[in-house]
Amino acid sequence: MLISISLKINTVQAETFSTGRPKIGIALGGGGALGLAHIGVLKWLEENRIPVDYVAGTSMGGLIGGCYA
To answer: Which of 23, 39, 59, 64 lies 20 to 30 Å from 30 when distance is taken between CA atoms?
Structure first.
């Protein structure tokens, strides 16, 4: 377990250095109809040219994140 964590950290650091920018991840929560607010957040990120490299979500956030990915 400890070895895999250390390998993951090294991989993330290598990705950051190779692209010249930090990787950005977004976690979208659940909440039924309130989860639709994630669409506005993702739209804002796109309009401001903020790239999202990783998407995670649960419940409605998982549905929205899956559509976005």
So the answer is: 23
